Amino acid sequence: MKFRSIRFRLSAFMLAAVAIPLLLSMTITFLVTKQSLREQTTGENERLIFQGAANLENYLQSVNKASIAVYKDPHFLTNLTRIPNDYRAAAELYTSLDTIRNTVPGIVSVYMHSYEAGQSTLVTGSAPKRGQREHSYTEDVPYRSNALYIEASHPVHLYGFSSPGPAYGKDVKVFTLHRSIQNIPSPRRLADLSIDVSLDTVRSICGELYQGGSEQLYLLDATGVVIYSSNETLIGQKLENSDLISGINGEQKQGYFEADEAMHVYRKLNAELSGWTLVKQIPYETLYARATRLTEINAGITGAALSVAIIGTLLISIRITQPIRQLLRYMEKIQAGQLDVDIQVTSRDEIGMVFRRFRRMMDTVNNLILREYRLELANKTNQLKALQAQINPHFLYNTLQSVGTLALQHEVPRIYSLLSSLSRIMRYSMKDSTLVHLKDEAEHIRMYLDLQKERFDDQFDVIFDWEPGVLEEQVPKMILQPIVENYFKHGMDARLGRTLLRISGTRPAPGRLRLMIENTGLSIPHDRLEQLRSLLSCKPDAAVPEELAAPDKSVGLRNVLLRVRLHSGEAGRMDITNIEPHGVRVILDIKTEERE
C-alpha cells in the first residue's frame, strides 16, 4: 500500500527529477574532465620528457666528445707505444687523461690500458696510478661496432688498484663510458679507455622531470637495468616490472601507455650513443586528482540538493497526503455508521475545497436520509424488541430442553433429537452476526434437513460435497436455507418418487467461492423462471416492478442475492436454471479472501 501512496510516488518522482540530472551531469563532467586532464597531462609530460631526454643526450655527447679527444692529440697514439720507459710520454698521456677528466663536470675517474706497453693508468683527483698488466681490466666489455659501450650504474671501479683516492671511500655510484682506441683506419686495438661519470648531473637533470612522492621516474638501459630512478634503491638493479618493460620495447621512439593503474610517458635516447629510455610514471590518483576533487565538490552539491529535495518533498507530500488521510478517517467513521462526524477544515487550497464539499454533502445526507432512515430503524427496532419481549428466548430454549428431557424419560430419542435440532436452529437464526463460517451454515442446513426428513418421511436423499478448505470461508448468514426451503415448497412432489438434493461448494478461482444447490424435484415453469431472473437482475437500489413485488414472488431469493452482494459487491451472483429431465439448479458466486 505504501508503494502506491501519493507520498511515495511524489517523493520518488521528486528524487528522480533531482538526482538523475545531477548524477548524470556529475558523471559527464567527471568523464570529460578526466579525458581533458589525460590529454593535457600526456602532452605536457611528453614535452617535459622530450626536453629531459635532450639534456641527457647533450650531456652524454659531451662525455663522448671528451673520450674521442685523444684522436685530436697528434702525439697520443705514439706515446702509447713509448711508455713505460719514456717518462716524457707517460707525462703527456697523464696530461691528456686528466684533461678528459676535467673537460666535463661529473667525471670521477679516467682509466686507460695500453696493449702496446702492457700498462694500465688510473687518473683521479689525486696522484695517478700506474701498473704493468698483460690484460686490460675491462677486456671483457662488449663493445659495439662503433667501439663504444656505456655500462649501467654501478659503484665506482677501482680497476684493480688499491685506495686510489679519498673519493673512493664513499659509496659513489657512476655509469661508465667504455671506448676502444684504434689506430684508424686500422681495426687494431691499441688501448681501452673507461670514463666513470657521477650520477649527480643525471640526477640534477632528471630531478626536474617529476614530482617527488607522487610520481616515479626511470632511466633504463637496453637490458632494463636502472641507470637512475626516483627510488634510489633501484639504481643499478634490473627492473622486474614486465608491463613497463613490454610497454617501451616497441619500435616507437616516444609515446605513452597505461599499466599498473598509472600512465607511463617515455622517450628513447640516441640508440647509437646509449640506447637508454626515459620513463615517467604518473599514478591515476595523481593524474586524475583534479577530476576527483571536482567530482567530490559536485557530489557535495548533489548531496545538498538531494537533502533539500527530500525535505521539500516530504513537506509537500505531508501537506497533500495528511488531509487525505484525515478525510479517509472521516469516511471510515461514516462507514461505521457515525454519520454526524465533525469534519474540520483548516486549509484554503484545493484539499480544503474538497473537505468543504464533502462536509456539505454529509449535511445533505443527514438532512435528506438520516431522519427517515433513523425513524424507520427505530420503528423496526421497537418492533423487534416487542416481538422478543413476547417470547423470551431463554424461556423457549429451556422449555424445549424440558420437553426433550421428557422425551428421553419416555424412551423416545427421536423426539429429543428433533427438539435439539430445532433448538439449535433457533439459536443460530437469532445469532447476532452477519458473517459466519460456511461450516456453521452447513451445520445449520443439516439440522434443518433433519427436521424436514421427519416431516416428509424420507422422501428425498441429501448429498453434501465440499471441496477441501471451503468450509473455512466466511459467507453471509442464512443464505442456504431460503434456497433449500423453496425446494420443499415448490419442488417436492410425491409423483416423482424419491428425489435427490445435492449441496456442494467449490473454488472456481482464487478469491471466489461457488455454492451449488441442485434438486431432482419439479422444474420451474418457463414463464415463472423468466420472472425470477428479471427479479434477480434488478439493481439493489432500484424499485421492484409491481408484478414482481408480490409476497409469493420469491422475495427470499432476492433477499439472499442482496446480502451476497452486500458482502461481495458486483462480484456476487445468483443463477437459476432447470436441469433435465426435471429439477432445479441454483448457483451462488461469492467473493472471499484470497488464500495461498
UniProtKB/TrEMBL annotation:
Keywords per UniProt: ATP-binding, Cell membrane, Kinase, Membrane, Nucleotide-binding, Phosphoprotein, Transferase, Transmembrane, Transmembrane helix, Two-component regulatory system
> Where does it reside?
Cell membrane
Q: Has the keyword Glycoprotein been applied to this entry?
A: no
Please give the chief subcellular localization of this protein: membrane
TM ranges: 12-32, 299-321
CDD domains in the cross-refs: HAMP
Which GO molecular function annotations are given, in alphabetical order?
protein histidine kinase activity
A Pfam family reported for this protein in Swiss-Prot or TrEMBL: HAMP
The answer, when asked if Phosphoprotein is one of the entry's keywords, is yes
Membrane topology, as annotated, equals: Multi-pass membrane protein
Reported EC number(s) for this entry are 2.7.13.3
List the SMART domains hit by this protein, alphabetically.
Answer: HAMP
According to UniProt, the name of this protein is: Sensor histidine kinase
